[in-house]
Write a structure and sequence with these properties.
Elements lengths: L2 E3 L2 E3 L16 H11 L4 E2 L11 H12 L12 H15 L4 E5 L1 H13 L5 E6 L4 H8 L3 E6 L8 H6 L5 E7 L11 H14 L2 E5 L22 E6 L1 H4 L7 E5 L1 H13 L6 H10 L5 H18 L13 E2 L10 H10 L2 E2 L1 E2 L10 E4 L4 H15 L1
Parallel strand pairs: 3-12, 5-6, 5-7, 7-8, 8-9
Antiparallel strand pairs: 1-2, 4-10, 9-10, 11-14, 13-14
Length: about 375
């Protein structure tokens, strides 16, 4: 018999697992769907590069397809790509971890949490956090433990240490960070590595934006505690190929081997044509695109800094301002933005608080200026 909700029948609901009650629909995707229904919205909501995939990378994918390299690959990924990733990690960190090619960083994070979490294990993470983190931890039977880092958005190792319990198992961090755009300093990252070492925590380091760091290279925890680091990186944000769903995990063999086992029965393997293209991507110069996004960052900061409070972003493509005075919540402020055809993301999507909102500057300059004009007007 179908379940009842508000007097109406909801077919199929009686078959749903209890875990689904802990997972909400993505607030980002809701805004994405809303944009599709609006006529010419000023969309500053989605974190997707507005530059094209480099021609050499597209050509490599096309050539792979035409050469009939379209079937399954080995679960870990094609040897050429894994070897190229390994070489880059050896050059950067003098590190030789196990490598698994994944279906995006989100795919890698899902596999990592599935492989590492027992029911009730705790995952420490900064608040605000990327939208999927808490939901994936719940899905894998764990307990997310958000540690607030408002309003400077720096990592205070002492605050994280105070949140450690006997059930703490994983420390999940990202830098450059989404939604704040903050790049954590080497000192902060080193202190988090020391914390992980003291309490025997696995550090999962989400570095999807590592190439998009504008004021110098982003520090990585892999430099300080490689034996307890699982590094997740991807190609979507840095090379404009978000829809290709390509990433990789690098870390201890024991963990990566179990992730690969899970990949055999879930994703099977990453898409083969895209894997061949990613070999080319890793040898493609993206400095012009990085410079352009540095300029867009500076433009967004100039447009908003006299009207909003925010930490100056140093990477990715986001600004995370506090809502103006006079609004009770970011949700209320975002509703007003929508009425003015400007789409941004309320802070509650990323946080236990609803006091900020996310602006993406990964858009053409003209749209960014129009959106900032609306935001300045709403600030009063």
């Amino acid at each position: 018999m179908a379940a009842q909700r508000g007097g109406r029948t909801v077919p199929g609901e009686q078959f749903l697992a209890e875990r689904m009650s802990t997972i909400a629909s993505s607030g980002i995707r809701k805004i994405f769907d809303l944009a599709a229904t609006m006529k010419d919205p000023i969309d500053l909501s989605i974190g997707q590069p507005d530059f094209a995939v480099p021609e050499a990378v597209k050509s490599a994918a096309i050539e792979a397809i035409r050469s009939d390299r379209n079937g399954y690959t080995v679960t870990h990924g094609i040897p050429e790509l894994r070897e190229r990733i390994s070489r880059s990690l050896a050059e950067e960190f003098d590190w030789e971890p196990a490598v698994l090619v994944t279906c995006g960083v989100s795919g890698g994070l899902t596999l990592a949490l599935m492989a590492c979490l027992n029911p009730g294990d705790e995952v420490l993470l900064p608040d605000p956090y990327f939208v999927s983190y808490t939901h994936l931890v719940h899905l894998c039977g764990g307990r997310p433990v958000p540690v607030p880092i408002y309003d400077g958005f720096t990592l205070d190792a002492g605050a994280f240490e105070a949140a450690v319990t006997p059930r703490s198992k994983v420390l999940l961090i990202d830098s450059p960070a989404n939604p704040t755009g903050v790049v954590h300093s080497a000192g902060e990252i080193r202190a988090m590595a020391d914390l992980a070492r003291r309490h025997n925590l696995l550090v999962i380091s989400d570095e999807i934006y590592n190439l998009l760091s504008y004021d110098g290279p982003a520090a990585s925890v892999a430099s300080y505690i490689p034996n307890s680091t699982l590094l997740l990186r991807g190609f979507g944000k840095s090379y404009g190929m978000t829809g290709w769903r390509m990433g990789y995990a690098a870390g201890p063999e024991a963990i990566v081997a179990q992730m690969a086992k899970l990949q055999q029965f879930t994703f099977v393997c990453a898409p083969q044509p895209a894997q061949h293209a990613c070999v080319v991507a890793l040898d493609t110069d993206m400095s012009n695109e990085v410079s352009d996004y540095r300029r867009k960052r500076d433009l967004a900061v100039r447009e908003l800094q006299d009207h909003y409070q925010f930490a100056r972003p140093a990477g990715g493509f986001y600004v995370f301002p506090r809502i103006p005075a006079g609004y009770d919540s970011a949700a209320a402020f975002v509703e007003q933005c929508v009425r003015n055809s400007c789409l941004v993301i309320p802070g509650s999507v990323f946080s236990g608080r609803d006091t900020h909102f996310r602006v993406s500057y990964a858009v053409p300059d003209e749209r960014l200026k129009r959106g900032c004009e609306v935001l300045r007007r709403l600030a009063g």
